[in-house]
Structure formats: structure tokens, C-alpha cells
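Submission sheet (multi-component)
Chains listed below:
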Amino acid sequence: MNERLSRAEFWRLTLLGTLAFLAVWYLARLLHLAPPQFLPMPHEVLLRLVDLFHTPFAGHVLVDHMLASLGRFAMGFGLAALVGVPLGLMMGWFGWLDDIVSPLFDSLRFIAPVAWVPFAALWFGTGIGGPTLIIFAGAFPPCLINAYRGAKNVDIRFLEAASMLGVGNFRTISEVLFPAAVPSIIAGLRIGAGLGWMSLVGAELIVASSGMGNLIVRAQSAVATDIVMAGMLAIGAVGVVIDILIRRIETMLLKHRQS
Amino acid sequence: MAWLIGRKARQVGVGLGTVLIVAVLWHLSTGVFGWISPARFPRPDEALKAFQFIQAEGYGNGRLLQHVLHSLMLVAKGFAVAVAVGVPLGLLMGYSRRAEAFLNPAFLLLRPIPPLAWIPLAIVWLGLDDGSKILVIFVAAFVPSVINSYTGVRNIETPMMEAAQMLGVKGWRLVREVLVPGSLPMIFTGLRLSLQASWTTLVAAELIGALYGLGSILNQAAQDIYPAMILVAMVCVGVCGASTTWLLGQIEARAMPWRKGRVAE
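Outcome: structure written.
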């Protein structure tokens, strides 16, 4: 394996890589490989992104689209975490629950979250209920699986100590299994948030009438490629912010445990 | 050992029992008591009828087998290209810190964008044909392939790399005898994630617009408000996802015979 790069070398190559990426993009335009309406130049995309903050597109400015999306996301992801994590922990503790839930869960696991779109629309409409179900379908499996694995991997000595001290089922789960499973649970929440965010975009592309997915699909039908790309960047950025927030929560929880 | 067998038998028994109870509940709540309106969820016999209908007469431009094969073919193409490009790229970025520093900026920009967000762009560029679907599947499967191959190489133990270096193993031989075997478990983890992402994006892309494919059945059935057909299509999506994942698991087991007996799933 190569040696570590010096700081200067690393930044030189990073800068070079960035320039090469932009150069390819600009060249594709300058050499007329793609017509302007299909491939806007990078600075045009950035300007459009700034522009979207105060010029409404598809009925709202960008911040309102973000808030609509985040509201749905919070509902779906919150529900997935609130159901998935406790259920996963309980499945890790009660063998009979594991035996009952696992076959049902396994038979639903392989259905892609967006395949729930038709039923979601049929059952809960296209406003907030339908997309919530789709986000839930995306975020739920990792929340459950990781909590379950975390609970299964708890050191058996802790469980023996707990049972010897006469700790009941509920307190064993909340005071032994949960704290020990926190790293695994947080990892599951991060994966779940990523998949949930992606499912949200899918739901909004197909059924919703607002939100960031709706923004880019409307831009697509208007063949406004710069808005599509600006929207993609904004969606990516929000995803990164969500991930950072969850990691913050993890550091807070772990610090709390150490003190 | 007897305890293990007992546990296994109990698991299978409870599993079968659960499935049976759900089936009975389904029948009772939709058919017998009518708690759930047939406009929201189909009765078992309706689902069966829809299945026979799409098998024999076809629905949404084709019979079931045509749709399934069409979707499978698109996933296979997009997935294969993504793996063929992504795995070598990940190995390179893992091996060479220079390559990593050079390629990372573009990768960091593209990585956080969910694959489904590429669908509108793919449609603008390539229309509603197969090309745009292959493009979005490629994007979806590419990122996990790169990241996991990269991690795989980085996790090869230093003594192994040093031994290879000392023995003068270079070039193609280094790739074939050290980098690939050393990172194979992680590569397969990446492939499994890539495959799941492929199915998700394909279904979404077909829901938005397609002539054939499982997503197009879903879309057609949603427009016709035909819950039984929605159910049939969803089951097919699940079966396709599960069977391709199973196939990948078989390849994984054959590719790493030295790990026999301790395969995780």
C-alpha cells in the first residue's frame, strides 16, 4: 500500500481532481457535445440553486419545498425508529417474538420501498400519509435489524448479572440491552435515514404535489435541466445534514453513558 | 445438538403458524367479514385471479413473464456495468492514496445524491426508454460497489501488503492474488447493497414511465385502481429481489470457498 501523502501533496491532488472534474464538464459544453438545455454549466447550476431560494418554482421557493419534504421525512422516519428500535430490542430478548415476527419481516424485506407507492396512495392519499408509509417502508428494516443485532450481541454476563439481581423483562430491555446496543442502533438509524430520504424522493417523484422530489420532476417536464441539477444538489445536501445530526446524537448519547 | 434441532424445528413451526394465521386473518377480514373494503385490499381469490389473468392474458402491454424478464434484464445490465466500473475504481482508490485524493472531490459531490433523484435527469437526457433506466440503475449500484471495494482494500492487514511488497508482487498479480481475495468479503457486501439499490431504482423509474416491467404493472394497476394486480406486482418485486439476492449469495459462497462454514447469512 502506498505511503500516506503529505498534506501539501493531498491538497494538490484534491485541487487537481476538482479542476479535472469541472474541466470535463465545461469541455463537454464548449466542444458542443451536449446542447445547453440538457447540460448546463456548473456555475449556471450553482446560480440557479441560489436563485431557487427566492424565486418560486413549482409553486414554492426552495426552502418551502425542503420543509414539506422534511415534514414527511420526520413523520416516516420517526415512526420507523419508534416502532423498529423497540421491536428489534424486544425480538432480541423474547425468543417467541423473534420466531413470530421474523418470517413476516423476511417476506416483506425484499419488496423495494417504492413498490408501496400504489397502496400508499390508495390507503393514505398523496398528501402526507402516503409518502409517510413509503419512508417508513424504507427506513424501518435497518432500524429493526440493527437494534435486534445489537441486542443479540450483548455480553451474556450482563444479562446473567441482571437476571441474578432479579431485574424484570422491561428493565432488562431498557437498562441493559438498550444502552449496550446504542452504537448498533445508531448505525441502523443512519442507514435507515439514508434509505428513508431516498424513498421520500421516490414518493415525491411519483405522487406528491410538493417537496423536493416534486420540484425536480416538475423541472424535468419543463426540460429545465439546471433546476433538476440544482434540486439534486439540494437533496444531497439535506441528506448530508440529516446524517450529521444523527451522528451528533450518537456522540451525545455515548458521552452521557461515559459520565 | 438436539437442543439446536429443537430450536430450529420450533422456529419453522412458529413461522409456518404465523404465515397461516396471517393468511386466515386476510381471508376473514377481506372476504368473510368485510372489515377491509375490496377497493383497498384484495381478497385472496381476487389476487389469485389477477395472477392468473396476467399470466394467461397479459396486463399492461404484456404477460407476467415478459414484464419480469424485462425488469430482470435491465437490472442485470445496469448492475453489471456498475460493478465492472465500480469495483476496479474502488480497488484503485483503496490501493493508491494519490488516486483517492484525485478522484474523491467528484465522488464526494455525487455520493450524497440519492439514486432516485437521478431519475428526472436520466429522463431529460435519455427519455423514457431502457437507456434511462440502465443509467439510473448504474448510478444506484455504482456507489456501494466503489465504497465497499475501497474499504475492503483499506482493511487488508498491513503485514499482508508488506509481504506482497517484499516479495515483489506487482501489477496484475498484485490485483489478482492480494487485493481482490483480501477485499472479497467487503466487495460482496457492496454487491448485495448495489443489487438492492438497483431494484429500488428500477421500480421507481418504471413507476414513472415505462411500457414493460414490474413497475409499469404497478403504475397501470394504480391508475386502474386494481388492488389485486398491485398486490401481484408487489409480490413479484419481492420475489425477484429475493431470488437475485439468493443467486448472489450462491456466487459469493463459490467465490470464497475458504470461508465455508462461517458465512454470515
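Remark: Chain B has ten helices and no strands.
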